[in-house]
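Supplementary notes for students who missed Thursday's class. We covered one full example, reproduced here. Read the sequence, then the structure, then the short commentary at the end.
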Amino acid sequence: MKRKHIARFQQEFRGSRILSFLGLNLLTRTFPVLAVMLVAFGVYAFAAGEHNTAGILMASTAPIMLPVETKEFLDKELKGLREQLGTFTEDAQKQIKANGTMAEETKTKLDKTLTEIAETRDRIKGIEDKLSKSTSLGDGPESKTLGAQVIESAEFKDFASKGSKSSGRIMVVGGFNRKTAIVNATGQNQPLVPAQRVPGIVAPMVQRLFLRDLLNTVPATSNSIEFVRENSSTNAAAPQGKGSSPQVYENVSKAESALSFALTNEPVQTVAHWIPASRQVLDDAPSLGGYIDGRMRYMQALKVEDQLLNGTGTSGDLNGLVTQATDYDTDLTVSGDTIIDKLRHVLLQIELANGFTNVVVLNPTQWHDIELLKTTGTASSGQYIFGNPHAVTTPIIWGRNVIPTPSMVNGKFLAGDTQMACDLYDRQQASIEISREHSDFFIKNMVAILCEERLALVVYRPDALVYGSF
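Structure (token representation):
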């Protein structure tokens, strides 16, 4: 028997284990029969329960109560060891009775069994160390959940039976500071709570578009629109013989008038834009294609409205209404005029050019200032000139429609007879096309989404439009 095994066995067992220790020493040094008897007696004491689970787990300064599952596991381990020792004792007794000594094989089994006992002891010690660090194992109050402790408390039972409004203070063992609170995560991509997804894509607020609806639209059949404009005229119409001396009415020349003309043209311009996208995203997000189509058409229409109003006629721009309009005649302005007065002067200027204003285009801020104008008086006593703030009204000034649009620069105005002044020629209506024939899009699985339109704005009568500043 190795001495280190004997020492380990000595550390493991106490009381009845002393007999086993003596037996093991005598087994190798003195009478075999007496040694076997001592060992058998020690094993009997061990198997009888003197060395039990509770004793093993009393190594720490405070008792540690094991859960049922842990007790069952340890009992099973110890039962196996008891069976091994019982088998060893029977074999040893039989051998000594027959031969007067113990076989080497039996000694080897004894050595192996003692080694396993030592290993089991280390395992139990490891479990003991883990349990000593725990604060919630055992059959005591701390092993119960906080909810169970509350429900089983006398205060809660009294509260439930009497129907009281409050249970009063209920003491629980452990406290809430021993628990980890489970709460919702914040922000996006929460692990526990899926977000509610609103279908589709929310588009931004968009500018309302009115101007194009005020223009006559004519189909275009070429890339250039030509028209002949009367350049100048001399009207000498008079009665025959007027001014002759002596006055005669026949056989005399009549007055001669004159007209001159000029050929003018406006090129059809292309207004377009495109967006790159992958085939995968268009396949995987079915609603994206429709959203892109709608947004690109709107952005196209917004740019066209700006071009119809402010296009410079150069660098591929349309020749816009502001660019071709007649400047406001400042000689019509009278000292002390208000904004409303000035707009009436504009209408007069167009009327003097034999036109009739059907629309006044203003910036929304300018129209806001006009609507807030009041009659003479204090801020509270003055009456609004443009109607009742409680009523729904259409923007109208001097009987003409007002178009408030951010496309018009604040502080500026455009007024005129759009039906007589111009036409919008449409060579190609706005359309959406998708193609992979761009750069290396084919090998990258990319597509180009193109929105395109071709049109020309032709202003025949610049006098029918007036542009100026307030």
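Commentary. DSSP finds 15 helices and twelve strands in the chain. The two ends are 117 Å apart (CA to CA). If anything here is unclear, bring it to office hours.
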